[in-house]
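Input:
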Amino acid sequence: MLGEGILKGLAETARNFVGSFVSAERLTTVQYPEQRIAPIEATRDFPFLVYDGGNWAAGLRCVACQICEKECPPKCIYIEKSKDKKPDALGKPQFYPARFDIDISVCMSCQICVEVCPFEAIKMDTEFELSTTDRFGGLLYDRKQLARSNEHYHKIHPTEAAEVDARLAKARAAAKAPVPAKTAAPAANAAGNLTAGPTVEPAGGGD
Amino acid sequence: MNVTYKVGAFESNKNKPEGWNRPPVITPDGEGELLEVAMGPHHPSTHGVFRMDVALDGERVIRLKPVFGYLHRNHEKIAEGISYLGSMPFTDRLDYLCPLTNNWAYALAVEKLTGQEVPERAEYLRVIVGELTRVQNHASSIGFLIQEMGASGTPLMYAFREREKILDLFEELTGARMMCNYMRFGGCRVDASPAWLDATRKVVAGLPGFADEFERLLRTNEILMARTQGVGILRPELAVNAGVTGPMLRASGVNYDIRKVDGYGIYNRFNFRVPLGDHWDVYDRFMVRLLEMRESIKILEQALKDIPIGPVMDPKAKIRGFRPKPGEAYGRIESPKGELGFYLISDGGPNPYRYRVRPPSLINLTVLEDMAIGHNVADVVLIFGSVDIILGEVDR
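Output:
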């Protein structure tokens, strides 16, 4: 019969129309600013710099090795290495980024900086409401704006952060292990740095 | 900005060598004038920025000239300047509806170049995400096709409802809905958790119901049949000569599926069939996509049943800072749109000496004029929709 196919299709539409009233899981839309869907843990957005402890400038894990700057496909990372060194979490003197800028208007959220970072210093955030009225400076984030605490990292990616912490703890244990064989004093020193960390504000911080 | 031409004025190929153009299928009768219409680059049917210069005799199409290049982003040249790893996220942006198959083709090419092995579990994960990509691509491509016929909304929204579930799975696994950047040379970036596999099983269990619903909604619809049957016929000889691949070629009755003929990855382990078209028209392309969705669901069920435990990355694999030996490699896969290939030449450096994409969308689009000549303007939109292109891949 001519028109049978159309009627069949309309029956399907009617079923969907009625179905959305009786079954809550058929309602696929949410009213965005008021209602939000549950965040997915693996979601990535833009990078941030992880710091340990309470002071962002002292606790940054980044040692300005510039691997991410080199590997970044759209080249949106800009790093200036410090002239001096300061002790890192293992107590080893390391460079730190005197300047670490990410132009997030260029960043394409590909996560390659996270993957290539040997120091677990850069991770992906999940914050997406970043609109600004400033076209030029507003989307160029410096290291102060990029710094987030390790607790923040634990909050947004709990599983991944736990793995990272375990890896870092293992590395610290491995770094500490051979030390007591020689002398006990540097080990204590390293442990002290690990927990408290230096509180000196590096030059050019927060610009 | 429509321009009228006298008959014959449009013949720009007078000075071309003999045999350059085939004889005209239809000649304008009588004293009429040809009307040149520029469809696009902002035409709602063009899926993006693409222009068709159509010469019309009344309603009939006499000539059709596709104009590419509005979305050119210099992908190949950029890839020659950055490391092998750096090109991986850019491949997501070729065919942005199916980023994971693009990743796969590129990873395959680099693995061929470096002789890298891929662990078993990673191969299964690749098949799972690849087939999920195929399902969502075919569903939305059918939705777009029907939308171009004028049914604006219903089928496309049904397709997108299902696509949403699959994109949620992608986000849970890879961190992004569309720009996944998931595969690496020698495996996949992250492992799938058991919870993810369970969620995928649940979604896959719902997919046959979706395919049934889609079929009930559309397959026997008289309007769809009247609009698509006998329209846009692509003869198998022309399809093969033009290098058309994918559902377009199979709808023309040519049994050519790279999953079968190449058996890349682990596709020879799965039991699935290749649907072929009988009448070579738009309706066949629609049906072939519908049936391929069902075959993909079959592959997904098998892969989700057999997926082994193990690493997803070869522990010896280097993802950055490697220098392949001088040589060349061509990795190709059956992407949802056809044969997607990456051709790489290495000169021993950290970045490819030559990087070339063989995009299925661009090559399938070259036969557009042959399919459209003699049809009405309204059918041109339909024929164009049945090619299933993504401009990001056409222009690169």
